[in-house]
Amino acid sequence: MRVIELTEETPSVLAPTELTQEEALFVHKRFGAQVAVSFPTILTNNCYALRPSGYVGQLPISSDLLIRISPKIPIANIFGMLEYAYNLTSFKLFDDVVDVAVIEDLFERLASILARRVLGRVRKGLYSSYIADEGDLPFLRGRIAIAETARGMLRGATTLSCQYEEHTADVEDNRILAWTLYCLRKLPFKRQSVQRDVRQAYLALAGTITVTPAEARECVNRFYHRLNDDYEPMHGLCRLFLEHLGPGIEAGEHLFLPYIVDMPILFETFVAQWLKERVPSELQVTPHYRVRLDANVNLIFDMDIVVRNKATEQVLAILDTKYKRAALPDQADISQVTAYAVQLHAPKAILIYPSSQTQPIEVRIGDISVQSLVFDISTEDFGGDAFLSELVSVIT
């Protein structure tokens, strides 16, 4: 297996002997969103240039070629971000994965944790609920649909049209688990124990739970109570896998785990969840706040984070995360967050960057103060306390 080692957001130059034209074209067509490809010219000394664009992971190129993209931050920090972003603290990840050296191992361990949690829930009994159903029955169940029953009798039917509630485990809570395990079981995990756990968990659900496609967004904003509260962290893991094991990443015959981690999404989700847990009690944090614009076409602003005064519900600031390490914030980023602030009449518009490499700015546009702050995810504690202190001083 040939492996091309890359680092996120860092260009690498490859000679034609390291990457064929067919392979380069495949990368460009299949994974162009993850890795930008510059083809050989006289100016590049007839070499290829590959630059990952905010993704880490492993991309299958051919039966004997793999592109591995490593993160710029320590693997331990990836753990920390995942714990916050996907609400996984109840899994106690660090107790079980302290020996993980690469991010591929991280995905395998998380898959094993999900599978074992599902098997544990199956042994206890899956969460069940009542769902509305109707049908023609030879006996009375629930309520009779009088009109339908009368029409049937006029046709000579001997059944009753009934409307009733069915107590079943085949509900969305369990369908999300089943679909995620269905996707995971097709992946070639290095450790046979992980493959076995995932397969057993899937089979434990497949007999009674309908396997239907689920999306990552279905895993959030769900209702949990004492009967299904242990589903929340499992759905967090499902969301993680459904977001980062996309339809363009398939296992095929390759003996490695293909996956991608969209670092901008992870950074945005991490910052939002971290703030929700840490901001002072008088503040309210709302991630992914959507506003439909008054326009002759369908236009929507999807704002990363909105911060309000909890008592008055006044919007204090719009926060926009930018997973970039540029020397200065882009003018386009400034324009975007300013437009968000104008829409919600917010006095503050704040850009959040992941590294101190980006020079802070402070500019006034009309009545709106635009600033940039750093949430340094490369440090051991993410620089969180310093970030929060600065953020609170800016918006209050």
Cα-to-Cα separation, first versus last residue: 56 Å
Q: What structural category characterises the helix and strand content?
A: alpha+beta
Bin the helical content.
25-40%
Averaged pLDDT: 85
- The number of domains is 4
- Describe the main β-sheet briefly: 6 strands, mixed
Number of strands: 16
Q: Give the C-alpha Rg.
A: 25 Å
Unreliable segments of 5+ consecutive residues? 92-99, 247-255
Strand order of the largest sheet: 11-12-13-14-16-15
Figure out the total of helices: 11
Give an overview in words:
The chain is of the alpha+beta class and 396 residues long. The protein folds into four domains: 2-70, no CATH class; 75-126 and 184-261, no CATH class; 129-168, no CATH class; 279-395, no CATH class. The protein is built from eleven helices and 16 strands. A hairpin with a 7-residue loop joins strand 11 and strand 12 (300-309). Residues 92-99 and 247-255 have low confidence and may be disordered.
Distinctive features:
alpha+beta; 396 residues; 25% strand; globular; four-stranded mixed sheet; 4 domains
